[in-house]
UniProtKB/TrEMBL annotation:
<dbReference type="InterPro" id="IPR043426">
    <property type="entry name" value="MltB-like"/>
</dbReference>
<feature type="domain" description="Peptidoglycan binding-like">
    <location>
        <begin position="334"/>
        <end position="387"/>
    </location>
</feature>
<feature type="compositionally biased region" description="Low complexity">
    <location>
        <begin position="8"/>
        <end position="18"/>
    </location>
</feature>
<dbReference type="InterPro" id="IPR036365">
    <property type="entry name" value="PGBD-like_sf"/>
</dbReference>
<dbReference type="InterPro" id="IPR011970">
    <property type="entry name" value="MltB_2"/>
</dbReference>
<dbReference type="InterPro" id="IPR023346">
    <property type="entry name" value="Lysozyme-like_dom_sf"/>
</dbReference>
<feature type="region of interest" description="Disordered">
    <location>
        <begin position="1"/>
        <end position="21"/>
    </location>
</feature>
<dbReference type="InterPro" id="IPR036366">
    <property type="entry name" value="PGBDSf"/>
</dbReference>
<dbReference type="Pfam" id="PF13406">
    <property type="entry name" value="SLT_2"/>
</dbReference>
<dbReference type="InterPro" id="IPR031304">
    <property type="entry name" value="SLT_2"/>
</dbReference>
<protein>
    <submittedName>
        <fullName>Lytic murein transglycosylase</fullName>
    </submittedName>
</protein>
<dbReference type="InterPro" id="IPR002477">
    <property type="entry name" value="Peptidoglycan-bd-like"/>
</dbReference>
<feature type="domain" description="Transglycosylase SLT">
    <location>
        <begin position="24"/>
        <end position="311"/>
    </location>
</feature>
<dbReference type="Pfam" id="PF01471">
    <property type="entry name" value="PG_binding_1"/>
</dbReference>
Length: 391
């Protein structure tokens, strides 16, 4: 499927230029024979692969997927940012009739579908513009997950053979996730639907109807239970046994153990307690539907991002629990302040979002070097206090 945050930070459109690579060309020629043997029409194979180019930037992105890890506070701040909430409410208003019709057929709430749409492609504004055939062929040729990406490439050719979209429109992310809801080709083959009834399962069109219905069909087929919430934020009583936490332990008597809902009433559904930010951080009860969301992207942070954003789109409030500091002892606000103070001091961090990436690390190193400090490039509370003093 897609990948969420990955999809919760802006993904600027970038033209990836193919580079000459004789070994890649030889691999494509060999693969073309395998595709024809798999029953794909020769004219489809020839036309699709004739335009395939080797994209080294795709391999570079595949290698650096785990560049840095975000805290729960960071993740939710980006997933349910004011901008994303505002845009999501506008999308709900604009496509409300369609979303309600999809919910009526598949049972998945409109806010959950809209949250997935928001995290995966920013409501269709960042669907990805990389030619899928070239990206998938490059990754299959690279070999790190060659068998998987070759299966995706074959599925992409079948999409073209069926006529669901054109050769030029078959575009997506660097890893081959496509459309408003970022389906990979094999997931598309199994779960995409033609909700508009025009004969094509078009998840790439400006009209998001088929993409949203396809996501709902996927969640439904994965076991979504109509009328059951994804979960909710809760408060734990003093002295609560946190050993009961974990998705492996499911029960329906949490109220009897003193667990209380942060807002509204406690769900009566069977649920698990999770503590993604440790025993002192926010606590959540999550139901089977949370596990269904994880079938879209198997990350608890992603699941909480979808759940929390869907709650905010419904009119719910922010998280009430106390987020914990990161490994450097800093909260999101501290890191934003660090970036702001560095930039004002002449060491531009190229943004003040609180995420300490390569630009912020370079700014920290430059500051440390000019001040005669050990050059680590790492944020710290000591560094923040020094900047506050104007040192």
């Amino acid at each position: 499927m897609g990948g969420g945050i990955r999809a919760t930070t802006p993904r600027p459109t970038q033209t990836m230029r193919p580079q000459p690579n004789p070994d890649f060309d030889a691999w494509v020629n060999a693969y073309a024979g395998r595709a024809r043997s798999a029953g794909i029409a020769p004219q489809v194979v020839d036309r699709a692969l004739s335009g395939a180019g080797f994209l080294p930037d795709v391999i570079a992105r595949d290698r650096r997927q785990t560049e840095f890890t975000r805290t729960l506070e960071d993740y939710l701040a980006i997933a349910a940012s004011d901008e994303r909430i505002t845009a999501g409410r506008a999308a709900l208003a604009r496509h409300g009739g369609t979303l309600r019709a999809i919910e009526g057929r598949y049972g998945v709430p409109t806010e959950v579908l809209t949250a997935i749409w928001g995290l995966e492609s920013r409501y269709g504004t960042e669907k990805g513009d990389i030619p899928a055939i070239s990206a998938l062929a490059t990754l299959a040729f690279d070999g790190r997950r060659g068998e998987f990406f070759e299966s995706q490439l074959t599925a992409a050719l079948r999409i073209l053979e069926r006529g669901d979209t054109s050769y030029t429109n078959l575009r997506g992310s660097w890893a081959g996730a496509m459309g408003h809801t970022q389906f990979i080709p094999t997931t598309y083959q199994a779960y995409a639907v033609d909700f508009t009834g025009n004969g094509r399962r078009d998840i790439w069109a400006d009209d998001p109807t088929d993409a949203l219905a396809s996501a709902a069909n996927y969640l439904s087929r994965m076991g979504w239970q109509t009328g059951v919430p994804w979960g909710q934020e809760v408060r734990l009583p003093d002295g609560f046994n946190t050993g009961l936490a974990g998705r492996g332990s499911t029960r329906s008597d949490w109220a009897g153990l003193g667990v209380r809902a942060v807002s509204g009433s406690l769900t009566g559904a069977s649920a698990s307690l999770i503590l993604p930010d440790g025993p002192r951080g926010p606590a959540f009860l999550v139901t089977r539907n949370f596990g269904v969301i994880l079938r879209y992207n198997n990350s608890e942070l992603y699941g909480l991002g979808i759940g929390h954003l869907s709650d905010r789109l419904r009119g719910g409030g922010p998280i009430q629990g106390n987020f914990q500091p990161d490994a450097n002892g800093l909260r999101l606000g501290d890191r934003k302040e660090l970036q702001e103070r560095l930039t004002r001091a002449g060491f531009d961090t190229q943004g003040t979002d609180g995420v300490i990436g390569p630009n912020s690390q370079a700014a920290i190193r430059a500051y440390q070097s000019t001040r005669g400090l050990p050059v680590t490039g790492q944020p710290s509370r000591t560094l923040l206090e020094r900047l506050r003093r104007g040192a």
